[in-house]
Amino acid sequence: MTLRECLSYGRETLASSNIEYPSLESELLLRQTLIISRVQLYLDFDLELSHEQGETFWGLVKRRLEGEPTAYISGHREFYGLDFYINPSVLIPRPETELLVEKTINLAKGCILPVIADIGTGCGAIAISLALKLPRAKIYATDISASALEVARANCLKHGLTSRVSLLQGNMLEPLPRPVDFIVSNLPYVKEEEISDDNFEPVLALNGGGDGLEPIRRLCHQVGGKLRPGGYLLLEIGQGQQAAVTSLLSSLFPLAEIEVTPDLSGIDRMVSAVLSPISEA
Ligand code: GLN
What we know:
Number of strands: 9
Strand order of the largest sheet: 5-4-3-6-7-9-8
Bound molecules: glutamine
């Protein structure tokens, strides 16, 4: 079978099991089988796969059909135009989280030396995207999970950012050595009862407790003293959480200006707050 035939059989098999992006996923799995780039795949379209390569490819397709995400099978995921290593210790970065990155870049690009904290960094996608777009920024990236921080460390090395991104293990803002100008975070916010048993992603990275808001609430209570007066807090939220998060923030920081931003599907996805320039802590 040629690469072209293999790709199209893969696509048909994935499509018939209702996998969302069958062409893209078939391509990623075939490239993973052969360890080749996209360009190489297209150049070698008419080459024959060996029997062994064919077996490997169908093995990967089978894992996908059993529900394992392609990002875990391939060990990679693109986010904000960058390639990240991924394994089951970390959440797979979602495109909607790019909103958080975009907004932070817009706010921080006018700062001379912005100091930014990414809380619950996982694979490091937010911290690393910010560091690459904001070359004068100093970034702290925290996570409670040591195995997640190993993935973030590999990604910092891959992107040449080991000195500008400091990885710190601990509970949310606690490990920060000094107050920062920006706190950016995509914490777990899925309601515990909505997390399915056959989920491949780490429950720790998804579980927001009974109402989905426990981690966000804990973070907001830690902000005083860790965010400089006039600093920004940017939080990704789940569908329908904007009212609760906005009212929590306005009760903690009555002088803060608070904004809710929808994602591309029109779902309110981010709450951002700028603290008053006069300390409320
Ligand atoms: N967006 C993810 C989901 O809906 C959840 C990410 C999170 O909890 N931060 O599966």
